[in-house]
């Protein structure tokens, strides 16, 4: 059931993003993450945006993924899962190439889908199935010759928390929060990364919910 939900969340997600800036630099034990990867342009204080810093465990490379989140990158609605309603964001970052998915899960439940998040609070990452909500996924390389990695929050040895500071469940409302933890490669190649960051999502009109 969760695998089917994960596939449903990916429908309608486009293949590009609108980053404001990106800078990669090797991590230094004495340098802060912000000092290593501070971008030139900050996102607008209003509107949807993402700002994630990833420290790859093997290469010690720090990478900041930061930009404006276009409405078409937000998957919000009941398509294929009604009357339940789900929320996720997914976008492709062009340089360095990466795909990022943040899955909030079900904002409205049904007989077969339990609600994942009901209001503000802190929620540990889901475990078990791929993209078990709430979840974070980064598809990228570590900048030091690794194969393509699928760094996921659902892997047994991963751990982290999704903090919701502002919650909404209807089109036009806003979801704001932070994420922190360790994601682990879902594959044979041993790799992990530490993720921290923040986001703001203006919810678009619901899809497939019959106006509810």
Main structural class: mainly beta
For the termini, the CA-CA separation is: 24 Å
Element pattern in H and E: HEEHEEEEEEEEEEE
Largest sheet: 13 strands, antiparallel
Helix content: under 10%
Instruction: Return the average pLDDT rounded to an integer.
Output: 82
How would you summarize this macromolecular structure in one to three sentences?
This protein is mainly beta and 212 residues long. The protein is built from two helices and 13 strands.
Report on this model:
By secondary structure, the protein is mainly beta. The chain has one domain. 7% of the residues lie in helices and 44% in strands. Strands 1, 2, 3, 4, 5, 6, 7, 8, 9, 10, 11, 12 and 13 form a 13-stranded antiparallel β-sheet that branches. The radius of gyration is 17 Å and the shape is globular.
Per-chain topology:
Layout (H helix, E strand, L loop, with lengths): L1 H9 L7 E4 L2 E3 L6 H5 L11 E8 L4 E8 L5 E4 L7 E10 L2 E12 L12 E4 L10 E6 L8 E4 L6 E8 L7 E12 L6 E11 L10
Antiparallel strand pairs: 1-4, 2-4, 3-4, 3-13, 5-6, 6-7, 7-9, 8-11, 9-10, 10-12, 11-12, 12-13
């Amino acid at each position: 059931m969760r695998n089917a939900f994960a596939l449903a969340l990916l429908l309608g997600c486009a293949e590009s993003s609108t980053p404001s800036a990106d800078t990669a630099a090797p991590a230094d034990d004495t340098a802060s993450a912000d000092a290593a990867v501070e971008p030139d342009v900050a996102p607008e204080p209003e509107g949807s945006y993402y700002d994630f810093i990833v420290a790859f465990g093997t290469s010690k490379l720090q990478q900041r993924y930061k930009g404006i989140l276009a409405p078409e990158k937000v998957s919000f609605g009941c398509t294929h899962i009604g009357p339940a309603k789900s929320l996720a964001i997914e976008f492709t970052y062009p340089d360095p190439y990466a795909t990022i998915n943040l899955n909030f899960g079900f904002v409205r439940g049904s007989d077969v889908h339990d609600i994942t998040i009901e209001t503000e609070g802190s929620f540990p990452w889901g475990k078990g199935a791929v993209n078990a909500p709430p979840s974070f996924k980064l598809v990228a390389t570590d900048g030091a010759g690794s194969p393509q990695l699928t760094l996921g929050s659902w892997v047994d040895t991963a751990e982290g928390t999704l903090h919701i500071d502002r919650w909404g469940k209807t089109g036009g409302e806003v979801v704001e929060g932070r994420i922190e933890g360790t994601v682990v490669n879902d594959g044979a190649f041993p790799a992990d990364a530490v993720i921290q960051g923040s986001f703001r999502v203006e919810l678009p009109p619901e899809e497939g919910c019959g106006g509810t």
